[in-house]
Structures are given as structure tokens and as C-alpha cells.
Design goal:
single chain, 147 residues
Length: 147
């Protein structure tokens, strides 16, 4: 299993590469660099043999958090890496006072939807043509901690 740790400046080249392999509209290296020092952002990487094989990011405002990006290198998918990243992002958000989490996911990404459902997310809406580059809708999913 990979080691999960906070993303650092030295991870950015590998993270940007994973993003470019994973998304039609990936975050740029500079986008990650700009987000890293923000107090309301929390980014993690998953490492195997000192190589970054996945990452995830959470943006927080008051009691709300949004999983802004999560991706795993193609050769490392289906190994529980995204599951571990999501779990740790949610836990970090909860420690920071977040009780409501949101994300967008392609409506055809059944594997990701199942993974998010496993973590308590449910579909609460749809954004038409959210992914304009690939002409695909997104589900808006949310997870609310009941206390």
C-alpha cells in the first residue's frame, strides 16, 4: 500500500503529469503550486517506491469542503489508492471543522461514483455539459456528517 503524505513543491512535476494523464482539462503545475500554500486547501500525494502515484485535493470554506481533484496514475488504479486518499482528505476536513463535502464527477465514471458512495456521498444534482471538452454532464455529489 502506498504512503500518503502532504503534497510538497517537489511533488508538483509528478502531480501535474498524473493530472494531464487523467483529465481533459487538468490542473496545471502552476495551479497546484498556487494552491499549496493556501490555508483553506489541503493536498495529499500517494507514494510507492518514492514515486508519486496519486494525489487528491480538498478546498475548505467554513463548514464546507470540496474535493477539487483526485487522480491515480493509470498503472496504479484499482489498488485502493484513491480510496485511501479520499478517506484521508475527508478526515483532514473533519479535523478542520468541515461537516459537508461536495464534488463533481462525470456521470459515466461508474467506478468513481461507487467509490464516493462508499465514503457516504450521494448524488444531489447534475451540472449539464460541465466537462465541455468531452461534452459530458457531471453529477454533484455530497456527504453530510450527521452529528
Amino acid at each position: 500500500m502506498p504512503i500518503i503524505s502532504k503534497m510538497t513543491e517537489s511533488d508538483l512535476d509528478q502531480v501535474a503529469e498524473i493530472a494531464s494523464l487523467s483529465f481533459a482539462r487538468p490542473w496545471s503545475r502552476q495551479g497546484f503550486a498556487d494552491a499549496l500554500p493556501m490555508d483553506n486547501a489541503y493536498f495529499l500525494v500517494a507514494r510507492k517506491d518514492k514515486m508519486v502515484v496519486g494525489y487528491g485535493g480538498l478546498s475548505m470554506a467554513l463548514d464546507e469542503g470540496e474535493i477539487v481533484s483526485i487522480a491515480v496514475k493509470p498503472d496504479y488504479k484499482r489498488q485502493g489508492i484513491a480510496d485511501k486518499l479520499i478517506g484521508q482528505l475527508l478526515e483532514a476536513g473533519r479535523r478542520s471543522g468541515v461537516s459537508r463535502f461536495f464534488l463533481e464527477v462525470r456521470v459515466t465514471n461508474a467506478a468513481a461514483i461507487r467509490l464516493y458512495e462508499k465514503h457516504g456521498f450521494g448524488i444531489c444534482g447534475i451540472r449539464k455539459n460541465y466537462y465541455t471538452e468531452i461534452h459530458e454532464d457531471a453529477y454533484v455529489m455530497h456527504c453530510i456528517d450527521e452529528e
